[in-house]
Write a structure and sequence with these properties.
CATH architecture: Beta Complex
Number of domains: 1
Radius of gyration: 13 Å
InterPro entries: DUF427, DUF427_sf
Strand content: over 45%
Structural class: mainly beta
Order of helices and strands: EEEEEEEEEEE
Helix content: under 10%
Strand order of the largest sheet: 3-4-8-7-6-5
CATH superfamily: Domain of unknown function (DUF427)
Shape: globular
Largest sheet: 6 strands, antiparallel
Protein name: DUF427 domain-containing protein
Number of helices: 0
Length: 115
């Protein structure tokens, strides 16, 4: 089974071989996330089929990556498999997938693929 890892600013934010993939995003189970790097954010967004997402700002060695992680604390039934799982974007390295933020977009671009 493939494994997934999220890294930012030299720190491993999450690592597991048990993850969910939804719409191209890797969702890490809560037990795989190093919560010492996650700071709750007041940001929330809504997805029509997943529900309301909550965000974390990532903080490593005094540097912050605002709203770079999100999760669904109370997902709609169709997304129950990702309840409390954490996904990442905004310049993080995810396993063999590198996500970079396009400055003109609010969505990440996948620049390379799983190997």
């Amino acid at each position: 089974m493939p494994s997934a890892e999220a890294i930012w600013n030299g720190a491993v934010l999450a690592s597991t071989d048990k993850f969910e993939t939804v719409e191209g995003n890797v969702y890490f189970p809560p037990s795989a996330v190093n919560m010492q790097y996650m700071k709750p954010s007041s940001t929330h967004t809504t997805c029509g089929w997943k529900g309301q997402a909550s965000y974390y700002t990532i903080e490593v060695d005094g540097k912050q990556n605002k709203d770079a992680a999100w999760f669904y604390p109370s997902p709609l039934p169709a997304a129950s498999n990702i309840k409390d799982h954490v996904a990442f974007w905004k310049g993080l390295y995810l396993g063999a997938v590198a996500l970079y933020m396009n400055r003109s977009s609010t969505f990440p671009e996948v620049l390379c693929c799983w190997t």
